[in-house]
Specification:
The complex is a heterodimer of chains A (about 350) and B (about 300). With about 350 residues, chain A is mainly alpha-helical. Chain A has 15 helices and two strands. Chain A has a domain of about 240 residues. Classes of the chains: A mainly alpha (about 350), B mainly alpha (about 300). At the A-B interface, helix 6, helix 7, helix 12 and helix 14 of A face helix 4, helix 5, helix 12 and helix 14 of B.
C-alpha cells in the first residue's frame, strides 16, 4: 500500500500543476458521465471546451465568455481574500442580489432623469448594498462570535425573498402590465451598463473584474494588509503576536468580498440581465467559490479560472441546445471539478510513498 | 380552542412531523462533529437522500424501502467527503461546500422524469382508536413511524455518546486526535464511519421531505434545511436532546409561519417566509454570544495525519 508523507515545504510544481490536472481528470470523469447519459463524450467535451473559442459561432460566444467571466472573477477575488485568512463568506449570492437591488433601486428612483452621474452613483450604491449585507455576518462574528458561514448563508435565503418582493412589489415596473420584474435598463440609457465595444461582450463589469484582479494581486504581494491576510490564514497565533487585529480582518475581508459581489450584481442587473426579476440570480455567488479554489486563491489565477468556468457555462448552454444535455449536468461537472481539485491538492503538501512492510 | 385561526393541538402535532428532516440531519451531523469533522455538505446529502428515497419508494412501491434508499444515497455521497478529507486530507470547509454544490447538481440531473409523480404514502403508525383521542391523540399517537424513529434515535445517540465505549472513542477522536491515535485508535477510520452515519441520517431526513412532507419530487426540495440543521447543531451545543429541542422550536416556527400565511395574517407572505432564517440567525447569536468555545469539540474541522 501507499502512505502519505508530509513534504518539508509545499511543492512548487504541484502548486501550479494541480488545476490543469484536475481539469483533465474532470473531463475524463465528465466524459464517462456524459457517455452514461447516452451522449457522445468527445462531442460534448468539444462543444463545451473548444467550440465557444474556435467554433463556428465563436465570434458571438467569445463575448459571452467575457459576460459570464466578469461577475465570477469579481466575486471570487473577494471570496479568496477571506478564504486566505480563514474567513468563510459563503453568502456571496445574497450580497450579489442585494447589490443589484440597492443599485437598481437608486437608478429607478430617479427614472427618467438623464445625467451622466446616475450610473456612477448606482455603482457606488451597488457596492454599498453588497457591503452592508456582508457586514451583518461580519459584525455578528466580531461582536457575538457567531459562525459567519451559517449566517452569511441564511442571508442568501432572506435576500432571495427580498428579491421576490422587489420584483413583484416595490421595484415592479409600473408600466409592466402586471408582469413581475422592474423596468428594463436597456430603455434607460443613463443607468444602462452597455457594451463598451459593440459585440465584444465587454461591459464595465468586465473592466472592473480585470482591474480588481490586478489590485488584489498588488494588495496580497505588496501591501501590509495582504501580508496580514496571509499570515492570519497560515499561522493565526503568529498573526496575533504580529499585532493583527482579528476583528478588523473579519470586517475588512467580509466588507471587500461583499462590496465586490454587490458590484457584480449591479453590473449584471444593468447590463446582461437588464432588469430585476424573480430569477435574476443564477448561482454566480456559489460558482465563484469553485472559481476561487480553481485559481488557487491567487487573484491572477482566479482571472484564468473565471474564464475557464465561464467556458463551462457558455459551452454548457451550447451543449444544452445542440445536444440536449440537461443544464444540471453542467452543475454536476462543475462540482466534480472542485472535488478533483481538492483531491489532487494533496500532492502539494504530501507525497505518496510506497510503504514497504513498515507496519 | 383556536387562536387567530390556529389550533394549538394541531400546531404541536404538525411541528413534530415538520421537524423530522432537520432533526435527523442535525443528529447525524452532531455525531460527525463530535468526532471532530465539520461536514458542510448536509444540504447536499439531504437532497440526494430526498431523491434516492423518492426513486426507490416509487419504483418499489414501499415507503419504508424508500427511507432505506434515502439513507444509502446520503451515505454514499458522504463517502466522497470522507475519501477527500480523511484520505486526501482536503480542507473540510471547501470539501463540504463542494459536496453541497455537487449534490444539488446530481439531484437535479437524476430527478428529471420524476416530477409530478405521487410517492406511496407514509401512513399513521398506530390505530385510529388511539389517534382520535382528544388532545393527546394527535400529539402522541397520530404520527407516522419516522416521527417516533427520530425521537428514538435522539435517545439512542444520547445514550451511545454519553455512556458507551463507542461514544467515548468518538468523543476522544473529536477532542484530541493525537491522544486517540496514541491510544491505538484509527482516527481516520473512526471519522470515516461517523461521516457515513451522518450521511445516512441526512439522507433519511431528506427522504422524509420528498416522501412525507411535500410529498413529491421538486428541484431544490430541501430549500436550505441542511444549513438549518448545521445551525441547530451549534444551538444544541452538540447534545442530542438539545438537538431535538432546537429542531422542534424550528419546526414550530416553520409551521406557525405557514399557518399564518394560510390564515391570511396582516404580515406580508414574504416576511413570514424569511422568518425561519432570521430566527436561526438570532438563535445563533444568542447561543454564541459571550462564550469563546461554546462547547465545540476541540479538534473540530482539523484533519489528522499520522506522521508515525
Amino acid at each position: 500500500m501507499f502512505r502519505l508523507e508530509k513534504r518539508p515545504t509545499p511543492s512548487k510544481f504541484w502548486l501550479y500543476a494541480t488545476p490543469p490536472v484536475a481539469v483533465i481528470l474532470t473531463m475524463i470523469a465528465g466524459g464517462i458521465l456524459f457517455a452514461a447519459m447516452g451522449k457522445n463524450p468527445f462531442e460534448v467535451i468539444r462543444t463545451i471546451f473548444w467550440d465557444p473559442i474556435f467554433g463556428e459561432f465563436a465570434f458571438y460566444l467569445r463575448g459571452q465568455l467575457l459576460v459570464k467571466a466578469g461577475p465570477l472573477i469579481l466575486i471570487a477575488i473577494g471570496l479568496a481574500l477571506g478564504f486566505r485568512a480563514g474567513i468563510w463568506n459563503i453568502g456571496a449570492e445574497g450580497q450579489y442580489i442585494m447589490g443589484a437591488i440597492v443599485g437598481a433601486g437608486v437608478g429607478l428612483a430617479v427614472f427618467p432623469t438623464e445625467s451622466r452621474w446616475i450610473f456612477p452613483v448606482m455603482v457606488v450604491a451597488g457596492a454599498f448594498g453588497g457591503w452592508a449585507w456582508a457586514m451583518i455576518p461580519a459584525i455578528l462574528k466580531t461582536r457575538f462570535n457567531t459562525n459567519e458561514i451559517l449566517v452569511s448563508l441564511m442571508l442568501v435565503y432572506v435576500a432571495e425573498t427580498i428579491l421576490a418582493k422587489a420584483s413583484t412589489g416595490f421595484l415592479k415596473n409600473p408600466e409592466g402590465m402586471g408582469f413581475p420584474g422592474s423596468r428594463n435598463f436597456s430603455s434607460y440609457p443613463a443607468a444602462q451598463n452597455a457594451e463598451l465595444i459593440a459585440g465584444s461582450g465587454l461591459h464595465w463589469g468586465g473592466v472592473a473584474a480585470l482591474v480588481t484582479g490586478v489590485l488584489a494581486y498588488i494588495l496580497l504581494t505588496r501591501h501590509q494588509a495582504g501580508f496580514q491576510i496571509k499570515l492570519a490564514g497560515q499561522a493565526p497565533r503568529a498573526a496575533r503576536f504580529h499585532g493583527v487585529n482579528p476583528a478588523r480582518l473579519v470586517v475588512m475581508c467580509m466588507g471587500i468580498s461583499g462590496a465586490l459581489a454587490g458590484l457584480a450584481g449591479l453590473f449584471e442587473v444593468t447590463g446582461p440581465a437588464g432588469q430585476i426579476s424573480i430569477d435574476f440570480n443564477t448561482g454566480y455567488g456559489f460558482t465563484a467559490i469553485i472559481v476561487a479554489f480553481l485559481g488557487r486563491l491567487n487573484p491572477l489565477g482566479i482571472v484564468l479560472a473565471g474564464f475557464l468556468m465561464a467556458l463551462t457555462y457558455v459551452g454548457g448552454e451550447m451543449a444544452a441546445t445542440n445536444l440536449g444535455l440537461p443544464d444540471a449536468a453542467i452543475q454536476v461537472f462543475q462540482g466534480m471539478l472542485l472535488f478533483f481539485l481538492l483531491a489532487v491538492d494533496v500532492l502539494t503538501n504530501y507525497r505518496f510513498r510506497l510503504a514497504v512492510g513498515a507496519h | 380552542m383556536d387562536f387567530g385561526g390556529i389550533n394549538p393541538v394541531i400546531l404541536i402535532a404538525t411541528l413534530m412531523a415538520s421537524a423530522v428532516p432537520i432533526l435527523m440531519a442535525a443528529l447525524g451531523e452532531a455525531v460527525v462533529e463530535r468526532a471532530g469533522v465539520l461536514n458542510l455538505g448536509v444540504e447536499g446529502m439531504m437532497i440526494i437522500g430526498a431523491l434516492g428515497g423518492f426513486i426507490v419508494a416509487v419504483e418499489t412501491g414501499s415507503p419504508v424501502l424508500g427511507f432505506v434508499g434515502g439513507a444509502v444515497a446520503g451515505a454514499l455521497l458522504s463517502l466522497i467527503f470522507a475519501l477527500l478529507t480523511q484520505v486526501f486530507l482536503a480542507n473540510q470547509v471547501a470539501t463540504g461546500l463542494a459536496l453541497t454544490l455537487f449534490g444539488l447538481g446530481v439531484s437535479s440531473l437524476g430527478g428529471q422524469g420524476y416530477n409530478g409523480i405521487k410517492p406511496p404514502s407514509t401512513t399513521q403508525l398506530l390505530p385510529d382508536a388511539l389517534a382520535d383521542l382528544p388532545v393527546v391523540g394527535p400529539i402522541l399517537f397520530g404520527h407516522d413511524w419516522m416521527v417516533y424513529f427520530s425521537i428514538l434515535m435522539t435517545a439512542v445517540l444520547w445514550w451511545v455518546l454519553k455512556s458507551t465505549r463507542i461514544g467515548l472513542i468518538i468523543r476522544a477522536v473529536g477532542e484530541s486526535h493525537e491522544a486517540a491515535h496514541a491510544l491505538g485508535y484509527k482516527v481516520n477510520r473512526i471519522r470515516l464511519m461517523c461521516i457515513a452515519f451522518g450521511g445516512a441520517m441526512a439522507g433519511m431526513g431528506g427522504a422524509y421531505v420528498s416522501l412525507a412532507r411535500v410529498p413529491q419530487w421538486v428541484d431544490g426540495i430541501t430549500a436550505g434545511a441542511g444549513w438549518i440543521a448545521l445551525a441547530i447543531v451549534v444551538f444544541a451545543s452538540w447534545k442530542p436532546w438539545r438537538v431535538l429541542i432546537g429542531a422542534y422550536l424550528f419546526g414550530g416556527i416553520t409551521v406557525l409561519q405557514l399557518n399564518l400565511q394560510v390564515a391570511g395574517s396582516a404580515i406580508p407572505v414574504e416576511y413570514l417566509s424569511m422568518a425561519p432564517y432570521l430566527i436561526t440567525i438570532l438563535v445563533l447569536v444568542i447561543m454564541s454570544a459571550g462564550r469563546k468555545a461554546n462547547g465545540a469539540p476541540a479538534a473540530l474541522g482539523q484533519n489528522f495525519h499520522a506522521s508515525r
